[in-house]
Design goal:
The chain is about 75% helix and about 0% strand. By secondary structure, the protein is mainly alpha-helical. The chain has one domain: Up-down Bundle (Sodium/glucose cotransporter). The protein is globular.
Length: about 575
Amino acid sequence: MQTIDWTIIALYCAFMLGLGFYFSRRAGKNMESYFIAGRKLPWWILGFSAAATYTGAGAAPAFTMLVFQNGMMGNWWWWVPFAIWMPLVAVIWAKLWRRLRVVTTAEFIELRYSGREARVFRGIYAMFMSLGFAVLLNGYVMGWLIRAMAPIFNWSDLKVILLSTALVLVYCTLSGLFGVAYSDVVQFLIFFGANLILIPVILSKVGGLNAIYDQVVSRRGADFFHALPPHGEIVGMTLFFLVIQGLFYASSPAGGEGYTAQRFMAAKNEFHAQTGQMFNAFITLIVRVIPFLFLGIIGVALLPAATTEPDRVWGILVSQYSLPGLTGLLVAAELAAFMSTIDTHINWGSSFLVNDLYRQFVKKKAAEKHYVLISRLATAGILLLSVLVGYFLVEQMMAWFLFINSVMVAFILPLSWLRFFWWRHNIYGEAAAIIIGLPLSYVIWFPLGFSQTDKHPFWHGFLLLFALGWMVIVMVNLLTRPEKMEKLKEFYLKCRPPGLWGPVRREIQGEEKRALRTENLRDIIDCLLGIFFCASSIGGLTTLFSRQWTLFLVTMGLSLVSGGAFLSRWRKRGVFKSL
């Protein structure tokens, strides 16, 4: 690290602080402005912001690690479920959440369920989301920041975390979701651009791309470049349960619910929410991964597999091959990725503490300025807890990668469909899933040793939790009373969800029934086209990097046909005109 590198990092930090102060007045108007940006965000901000949130401090080292460890198949661990849930959420869940006009997903509880139980559980749910899921997600991202920055700075883990979170604390507490969303765009562009520049810099020092490919084949064999599943570890039951995860991931706080749903609630209308999510899918699945497929391949060619920690490959490449100035830009890029995720998580987590706990149970009637102040204090508190988790708990990054992206939510995955698609699902089934799911997932994965994939294949732990989730939730639903018909009808008319709503639909006029049936059929076709487009686009990317030209032409042809059909159908519906 030279003076020019520190200067670039200092300029980035100053820019972020300035952004926080710029948006502080708009965010400080009221709680809606602070947590959902006054419902004024356009589709392109939503897409960039969501993609930047998924592109946390773990993105660069994690994507590079997956290629370094498992070749071109490595990133299919998350590509398989993401290629399914992202278009599903864009077509169905984005508009459902926007129609509800809530501030948090905890507020959904009292819209969907009735009685005193719903009000009490809204507070319990808020605690699990804010002090459970949000804190664990942040701790995981901080663990990756340590792996990325330590080889560059030669600092202690604690020093890396404290200095990085101090900047987030200032600008995020000031600016709320306005600052979070708009800064995410800048942060993503810095992150992507800096890592893209690194590739030709390294290649110029090591003899070019052809030399790298030859070296990889000599070290790992041609099988390293196998591009499409099923193959390697992603076969049979593992592949099956990754598909299952994708079908149900809309209930995940890291997927179609949580901070993703927060973006939908902040959209100008439901069409902005839907288009923003599809734009997010394209950036998340394709664009942001490109630099790290290169860097993973380069790492295999240049670094000894036996003595290199896979989760530190990205940091090692930066420390050994970067140039003065570029190193500072890459550090700023990694800080940008870290901040774009952490700021979202802590803003989202504090929204539960204030909107669903403090405002409901502590101080019901106060000035909006008071709630904004409490929101800022809650944001700082969640960040402090996250630092403790990241420093003391997060180790063995591949185990944590699978836990955060799959295992943590396996028990609660049925909620994604039951909440919106089955009238008989009630508050007791919801409570059983949330209260049991997170603690049980942690215990099974870590203390009981299911994270040791040399002893237990990935699908063992996932299947156990997913099956237990279905049994517990459905059994509790059937053993307890259904929700009141008045509440179900009110929710159905506001949200207009598809699925098993027979007793409720019988209360609705015939013309509205036909319109809903037409909408549901249209959505099913759009979902299938969206999934096909995402999966074939990823296939095109991996076959391009594997230099399998026939497969590349086939997958890209499928991508163009399915994507064109999808866009044509949305254009005919008037989606793009409404933007």
